[in-house]
Every structure is written in C-alpha cells, then in structure tokens.
C-alpha cells in the first residue's frame, strides 16, 4: 500500500527517481514493472500503477461497452495511453513526453501514494488542488459516516 506525499524533480530527459521509501514496495508489488497513464478525472495528474494492479484496472475498463462515448473516452485515456516503464539502475523511470506535456509536468512535481497506485501531479496543479477545501454541500453520505 502506497501512501504519502513526496516532492519530485523530473530531469531534463523526463525521468523521475522513485523515492527510496517506495523502492522495495515497487519491487515486491510488481517486480519493478509500472504503468504510466492519464488520470481521466483530474487535470495536471498522471497515474502510475504497479503492473499487477494495472492489469486489473485495464481489464475492467476494457470490459465496458465501447458503444457509449464516455466508455471509449475512458478506454482511450487509460488503456490507449498506457506505457509500461521499468526503473533503470538509478531507480529512474522515463515518463512519456506526451503525457508530461498534457499534465503540465515539468521540473517540479509531487508524487502521492494513493493506496494501490501513485498519482504524479504537476507542482502547480497539486498546489491548486490541495488548496481547495471540501465544502459542506459536497459531502457525500459515505463521507458523512467517516470518523475523522
């Protein structure tokens, strides 16, 4: 299970170094095979899945009927754009240039451990998102039951 927030630097070649605290977990979870794809719900963010978790997500998304445009859109953003990456000897992964550009990820980014996957945010998008508060009228029934 991944959790936590880490400031990340993306080098000039578009590589990010997996934080030391996650390296063993990534190796154990997927033998260092990760999948980078778009976050179809948030601007400024990419998703990074361990390969086994990715296979589950991919199969569920591909099982949706392609008759509906919203399903095709989700399939395109998740499955169509998915790129398998493996850390090099320095624990760096290469982020696809098209995905970096679309998410606005440049030199500074934020890596969030979100349980079964990572979210990689552009620094600006993360800052904007984290500054948003959840208003009372946005609280769902499920959220209201949480004991925070």
TrEMBL record:
PANTHER family per record: TRANSCRIPTIONAL REGULATOR MRAZ
Natural source organism: Luteibacter yeojuensis
GO BP terms, alphabetized: cell division; negative regulation of DNA-templated transcription initiation
Residue ranges of domain SpoVT-AbrB in the record: 5-53, 82-125
GO annotations of cellular component type: cytoplasm; nucleoid
Keyword Cell division attached: yes
Stated name of the protein: Transcriptional regulator MraZ
Family, similarity comment: Belongs to the MraZ family.
Molecular function via GO: DNA-binding transcription factor activity; transcription cis-regulatory region binding
Origin: domain of life: Bacteria
Gene it is expressed from: mraZ
Main location: cytoplasm
Swiss-Prot/TrEMBL keywords: Cell cycle, Cell division, Cytoplasm, DNA-binding, Repeat, Transcription, Transcription regulation
Subcellular localization: Cytoplasm, Nucleoid
A Pfam family per the record: MraZ
InterPro entries: MraZ (IPR003444), MraZ_C (IPR035644), MraZ_dom (IPR020603), MraZ_N (IPR035642), MraZ_sf (IPR038619), SpoVT-AbrB_dom (IPR007159), SpoVT-AbrB_sf (IPR037914)
Assembly mode: Forms oligomers.
């Amino acid at each position: 299970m991944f959790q936590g927030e880490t400031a990340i630097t993306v080098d000039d070649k578009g590589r990010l170094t997996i934080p030391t605290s996650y390296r063993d977990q990534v190796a154990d979870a997927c033998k260092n095979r990760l999948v980078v794809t778009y976050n179809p719900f948030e601007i400024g963010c990419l998703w990074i899945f361990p390969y086994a978790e990715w296979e589950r997500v991919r199969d569920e998304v591909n099982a949706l009927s392609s008759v509906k445009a919203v399903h095709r859109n989700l399939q395109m953003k998740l499955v169509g754009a998915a790129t398998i990456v493996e850390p090099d000897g320095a624990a760096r992964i290469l982020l696809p240039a098209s995905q970096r550009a679309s998410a606005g990820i440049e030199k500074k980014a934020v890596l969030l451990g979100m349980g079964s996957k990572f979210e990689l945010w552009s620094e600006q998008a993360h800052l904007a998102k984290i500054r948003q508060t959840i208003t009372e009228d946005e609280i769902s029934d499920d959220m209201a039951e949480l004991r925070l």
